[in-house]
Amino acid sequence: MFAIKESPKLLLSKGKEPSAIEVLQSMYASNHGSKCLSVTSISLSESLTAATSSRDCSYIQTIWNQTAPLFKPPLLKNSVILYYILLCSFMTGDNNDGKTFCAVASTAVTVECDNIVQPMTLYITMVNSGLTTTLNIILTFLVGPLGKKTTTVLVLIVSIAAGILLLLVRQQLISIGLFFIFLFVVLVLGNINIYLVELNPTHLRGMATSLSVVVARGFGFISVQIIGSLLQSHCTSMITGYIILITSDLIVAFFLPQDKNKSQFGVS
User: Fold this and answer.
1) Of the residues 49, 63, 66, 209, which has the maximum number of CB atoms within 10 A of its CB?
2) Which sequence ranges are marked TM in the entry (predicted)?
3) Contact 228/238 with Cβ under 8 angstroms?
4) Are 92 and 18 within one domain?
């Protein structure tokens, strides 16, 4: 962490232009080898008025100043799209001999909690976490050539397909695998946070990404309560409802902004 350089935008917003130029030159050298970036002066294209005016406000007013603009034009449309995708995704994913997954779940024996974590629970959690980490790493390599919008749409399509098959497949091991894939819809979080950083002014980015965590974890918690109440008695209806929710997610994802190419960033 100590080796990571500060954001040039933050340095410039604090009036440290020489330090900002030094960081840019270091970034350019890392990306282009020994080439030197000849820059003598830089400036921000966005106003710092909103950011600096919050320094003399109360804590509550500061939070409001950083939150309210996210839900006003021109940021309103993108904020609604991105937070809706997060809401639907984390409501779904933060959470048999001749029978479907729901047929097994509906006949499962209820076991009283004895405050002891079973080894199998730990093994399943470890496998799930490992698979999620591996898939996240794979997505980081795919998002470059495919783009954020395409990878987001692909994740949603795969999750929807797994959910539909989950209701039809009658082989227990395959059903368990499909259930895990169905939950991997939460992998859209990385792309959504990148969008929130790209589309919002510098002084609102911290609040925008913080709200994404609140939305994701908050609705994930609500979803866990719903699943706990309905899994055994109304499993098929519940899974169908989540499939519809992710399908609406997919429709909304098509309205995401197109990815910026290198020329739009001024990179050659």
Assistant:
1) 66
2) 120-143, 150-168, 174-196, 208-227, 239-256
3) no
4) no
The residue assigned the tokens 């603009």 is 69
- In a domain? residue 52: no
Examine residue 158 and state whether it is found in any structural domain, yes or no.
yes
Find the helix packing angle between 148-166 and 172-183, rounded to 10°. 150
Q: ω into residue 74 within 30 of 0, thus cis?
A: yes
Contact 81, 210 (CB under 8 A): no
DSSP codes, 42-95 = ---SS--HHHHHGGGS-HHHHHHHHHGGGGSTTTHHHHHHHHHHHHHHHHHH--
- Is 124 among the domain residues? yes
Task: For 113-171, write each residue's pLDDT tens digit.
Answer: 667 777 877 887 888 888 889 999 999 999 989 999 999 999 999 999 999 999 898 88
Q: Do residues 96 and 103 touch, judged by C-beta distance below 8 A?
A: yes
Q: Are residues 243 and 164 in the same domain?
A: yes
Q: CB atoms < 10 A from the CB of 203, how many?
A: 22
Range of the domain at 40: 8-45
What is the residue whose two structure tokens read 């990571």? 4
Residue 191 burial (C-beta neighbours within 10 Å; 0-12, 13-18, 19+): buried
